[in-house]
Amino acid sequence: MTILEENYDKKLERILLTPEGVPLHIFLGARSERAAAFLFDIIIQFAAIVIFSIALFVALGPAIGPGWAFAIIIFVYFLLRVFYFSFFELTWKGRTPGKRALGLRVIDRHGGTLTPEAILTRNFMREVEIFLPLSILSTTATNAGQQLSTLLLSIWVCIFAFLPLFNRDSLRVGDLVAGTWVIRNPKTIMMQDLAAGQASSEGKVSPYQFTAAQLSIYGIKELQVLEDVLRHKGEHVRPMQDEVAKRIQKKISWDPAEVPGYSNLDFLTAFYRALRKQLEGSMIMGQRKESKTDV
């Protein structure tokens, strides 16, 4: 992410290399935040099934009888439990209501696009990790002579539930299998040096001009990547900035030869300001483009 995150635990900071070769500084979600988000989602599921149960008994209870009503409730709860997380992470780009409330999101651990396959894998694995053993445990615990099964299932649940405590990146089995991270996703804040530069350049016509069509190729994600590139100073980052400038120019068909005294850093700064202005204008109109993959 490309924000000022001085208050975040540096132990949670990671470097994510995008497919374009751009290193991003991200912060993993803390274990307590992930647990709170999960609890939040479970409460929402519980509230939803309670409301559904009351509505079912009121509307159809006398007609279908308590036996069928309970069977329908159990079936609906199963569907809710299995598909709740996947549905929201697919539609909300890696976020559930709980993650959204806590400022978290799921991303691809290798810097690529978060795929539906990865989302489904990480969430279906939760059935194996937690829900299925707990469901079996709730039945064996009430039967005499099932002490061994209860013990083994309890150990199973504990191993998977506490696995994030014993690895550096706080990964569940679902994250390990799907290749995902849960990161902090706070609001983007424009860097102070860029903001000052933008204010000081007001009233002047920049030689770096871009059309709306050129700017519309990129979205919020690319703006954040570009901001991260511009954040870094020094000669050691110049090759990276040069490469990013060339990639953008090729993507938007922009010719640097038309600008006297051209420099890659000036180009990137001007493109950042123009892109940010267009995206902010679009959001005011209710249009939000998350990345270049959005149509």
Brief summary:
Helix 3 packs antiparallel against helix 4. The protein is mainly alpha-helical.
Tell me about this structure.
The structure is a single chain. With 295 residues, this protein is mainly α. It folds into two domains: 10-184, no CATH class; 192-284, no CATH class. Helix content is 59%, strand content 7%. It is built from ten helices and four strands, in the order ββααβαααβααααα. It has helices spanning 31-91, 97-102, 116-140, 147-162, 173-178, 192-200, 212-215, 220-231, 238-252, 264-284; strands spanning 13-17, 23-27, 104-108, 180-184. A two-stranded antiparallel ribbon has the order 1-2. A two-stranded antiparallel ribbon has the order 3-4. Helix 1 (31-91) crosses helix 3 (116-140), helix 8 (220-231) packs antiparallel against helix 10 (264-284) and helix 9 packs across helix 10 (264-284). The longest helix is centred in the first third of the chain and has 61 residues, at 31-91. The two termini are 23 Å apart. Mean pLDDT is 80; it is low at 1-6, 187-193 and 198-202.
Which helices and strands appear, and what pairs or packs with what?
Elements lengths: L12 E5 L5 E5 L3 H61 L5 H6 L1 E5 L7 H25 L6 H16 L10 H6 L1 E5 L7 H9 L11 H4 L4 H12 L6 H15 L11 H21 L11
Quaternary state of the chains: single chain
Strand-residue proportion: 5-15%
Described by the principal axes of the CA atoms, the overall outline is elongated
Q: H/E series, N to C?
A: EEHHEHHHEHHHHH
Tell me the radius of gyration. Answer: 25 Å
Gap from first CA to last CA: 23 Å
The total of helices stands at 10
Biggest sheet: strands, sense, closure?
2 strands, antiparallel
Mean pLDDT: 80
Total beta-strand segments: 4
Strand order of the largest sheet: 1-2
What class would the helix/strand composition place it in? mainly alpha
Unreliable parts: 1-6, 187-193, 198-202
Domain count, please report it: 2
Helix fraction bin: 55-70%
